[in-house]
Amino acid sequence: MPENTLPKYQHYIDGEAVAPDSGEYLPTENPFSGETWALVARGNARDADAAVAAADRAFETGAWPALTPSERGRLLWKLGDLIVANAERLALIEQRDNGKLIVEVVAQVKYMGDYFKYYAGLADKVQSSVIPTDKKGVFAYTRYEAKGVVAIITPWNSPLTLTSWKLAPALAAGCTAVIKPSEFTSASMVEFAALFAEAGFPKGVVNVVTGLGAEVGQALVTHPKVVHIGFTGGSEAGRKIYEIAARNFKTVTLELGGKSPNIVFDDADLDQAVKGVVSGIFAATGQSCQAGSRLLVQRSIHDAFVAKLIEFVKTAKLGDPSQPDTQIGPVATRPQFEKVMSYIGIAKAEGATCVLGGVSRPDLGAGLFVEPTIFTNVRNDMRIAQEEVFGPVLSVIPFDDEEEAIRIGNDVNYGLAGAVWTRSLKRAMLLTDKLKAGTVWVNNYRATSFTSPFGGYKESGIGRESGTETIKEYLHTKCVWISSDLDVPNPFVRR
Question: 29, 94, 191, 255: which one is catalytic?
Fold first, then answer.
């Protein structure tokens, strides 16, 4: 399609579509067809500054700070209804950008409506405390105050969902936001931003600046008016953001990488465990931070379970993600496709045995497909078992007993999630106690909810998203002391 006929997405700043300061645009490609289908604004530091200035004005003056928490909640509720009404339109745009299955993206976007409604209900339920003190003649209490401008930086695998995990509690708290989506998946975010005006949000409360991380993301992270950064992405990028934020004492929530163990014991329902393993690693083409990319199988059932798993995975249908019967779509970007294929080569060189897949499918779409891949004879010290591949690649590691399963499960730098498959309640409780991970599933995998906290240990991040406590990530706690004593005591002695 000629470039001058492509849809062109601008920034969304202060309630308006704004052309990039540079006048430049980035192509956005459909990973299935390989075709450029739209252009998105290539932002720079001046665009980021304009967006932060708009968010800061909206936070300090005008209608937004004048709203009561209940009034903020009503806006969020209306937005939730608009999200559901526009779910299929938004999902089609996101699916075209990142190649996820349309059936999953539609479900995710509809669920976002519930997410915003959950925080709509929470907006006026953050309660302060009266504090009993040991000081006579004074009254002390706490109050919670919105931090200010929040920068939200999201990846390409689930841009709308992962933005909502940060944006909904931030807005419920009374903050304002500047969103920087991945340069690979910006179009759906710009379309989503337009719903805020329709819902009645004041101008400047939500802004979107698109572009490259080095040109926009860094400008937001270093901006003096940004007080909190919410980021989902790789651990190395998260480490850099944390280091920069620390220089100016900004707070952060970082949801980073994972190398999660999916642990199957010999007393498990093996048919159900097979489906759980497939959900953990091959759903979303393995492009999920919580992916169960390390399968730990008790040695007594190892061979039989792997055979059953291979048989099931062979039935998966690869193809056009816009079709409802497709089960595995393409890798979302060419750099990520090349990374996945390089790790398959690394695994083979390390001595792991490829028992399924291990090849690309140039005959499908634009050629960014990787067949579901399973490696056996994997040691936990191999790179394929220690480093995040972020693709449909599974490492199978045998173990003998609970102690060894726990040791192997925890022997990694990440700690985002894990799962245990067993009929034994005692065994399940032992593993959930001992696994060092922010989420542990028992006899299921990949379930999340707006009601439940999500985040990681170790290099999988800092802070939690979802649930009631998350709203406090976006609030300052202030303590107020009021004296009822008209006689001020000795000013040279601390009370």
Answer: 255
